[in-house]
Amino acid sequence: MNWATIKNNLASIFFLALLFAAKGPYAQASHPVKEENAVDKIETAIQSGLFTYKLTEPHEVQSVLGLPLREHWRKDGGRDLLELIYPAMTFTFGKYRSEPGAVFTLLDVTLNNKTMDIGQNRKLLLRNNGDLRKLNHFDGLQNVSLKQLDLRTELPMLESLPFDSETEWPGADSLPAGFDPRRLLEEGKNPGLGIRALHAQGITGRGVGLAVIDQPLLMEHEEYAGRLARYDATGLAGFPPQMHGSPIASVAVGKDIGVAPEATLSYFAVPMWKKDNSGYIRALRMIFDLNEHLPEEETIRVVSISDGRFASKKRYAEWQAVLREAQEKGILVVTCDTSDWHFGTLTLKESADPDSVDNYQAGKYSFPDDVIRIPTGNKTFASHKGAEVYFYDREGGRSWAAPYLAGLAALAFQVNPEISPQKIKTLLIETAIHTTTGPVVNPVGFIELVKKTINEKEYEK
Predict the structure, then answer these.
(1) Per the confidence metrics, is the pTM higher than 0.90?
(2) CA spacing 20 to 30 A to 258: which of 81, 153, 221, 325?
(3) What keywords appear on the UniProt entry (predicted)?
(4) How far apart are alpha carbons 216 and 236 in whole angstroms?
């Protein structure tokens, strides 16, 4: 083969590569379907369930409407978005980048810039077992109806997806043997590792104020509404409850879930989505001012913030200064910032006794340099979706670990009001049980050492 032939072959290959790249997997069409024909087709597809929120894939739209005029790709937080654009119509699909093998599913349909109802605000009705593979591992089976499915062979899938008290299940004869989601949801409320035994001794956080700084909260949830003494949402009035706050409040002070169920909760809503420490700085300064006027039994001694990477946000030097001031005032601030202390997560083995340290395995968010690990996976938490709604989280994250540690700090301040924040952190790490799973938090051993500090004359500052 001479050089001219080689060049011609390479040119052909390069042209084909450019053509494929330009068209992509959802190629642009030279003759898209006409708008007047498309409207009827879309409405029929929606009514039949073919075009359905979170279930329909791009190729299913193209099978009805043909190829789009063009496609547009973009990112939205942790998701990739794909838009198929037709005359006067846009179909938006999404998938999480963190999930290998995830497929694009339908999120939104607009016609003449008006959003069409594809079931965004209704319970998601799965049509067949194949729809299970389209669900992401963040939302999973929450507010999903599985009543039409036979799930007897789907145990691995069911054990990987979160669900909630709004999930509709088929009858027991269509579930895997021994799989009982209602029992899991109830048993998952136990904070585990001997915490309820401490509650039985009266060590519940009573007389200690605990603050959470997080996203806007559903204030009415039965799990923590009775402990909520004050709520501040300055600058966020009318902003709807977000998913982050309810589980955190329930872990800290929830009546059934909480580590410190009788601590007094003060909640400060901030726009955590902004790369700015201003909200946290303002909230901590409000706490300093509040403590000047609060009765002793409500004085805030511990603050839980399920956020980190503060160094990458604006006003970091001021944030560091306000943290130092908190410590000087005897307030422990627990955050997820690994530059402070590196804690990881644990997952409870399915249906195992949550009080046994041997029944935990390293969680998804655990790392070799963890100084302590906290139960967060295969646990039940309060949901922001309703006052009586709970969800069962398969993985859990460090966001759920921070309020667990804050709750333990509240127990410590109840036992010994004079203990310093640094001493609490030191004792939590020192009492961790070192197993093949890693350093597991030891609530009972921790409180025993806290009791021994009562007679000490000096405390670690």
Answers:
(1) no
(2) 325
(3) Hydrolase, Protease, Serine protease, Signal
(4) 8
- Residue 339: burial class (beta carbons within 10 Å; 0-12, 13-18, 19+): exposed
What's the rounded mean pLDDT across residues 34-40? 66
Catalytic residue among 250, 266, 383, 399: 399
Selected catalytic residue, list 131, 139, 214, 370? 214
Q: Do 169 and 34 share a structural domain?
A: no
Is there a single domain that holds both residue 85 and residue 209? no
| Structural domains in the chain (count) | 3
Please check whether residues 81 and 148 belong to one and the same domain.
no
Q: How confident is the model at residue 339 (pLDDT cuts 50, 70, 90)?
A: confident
Told to judge if 399 belongs to the known catalytic residues of this protein, a careful annotator would answer yes
H or E element in which residue 218 lies: none
414 and 329 co-located in one domain: yes
Span 169-183, pLDDT tens digits: 999 999 999 999 999
Within 10 A of 87 (CB to CB), how many other CB atoms are there?
Answer: 12
- Mark whether 167 and 209 lie in a shared domain: no
Tokens 């997952």 belong to 347
Domain that holds residue 339: 195-455
**Mean pLDDT of the region 225-250:** 94
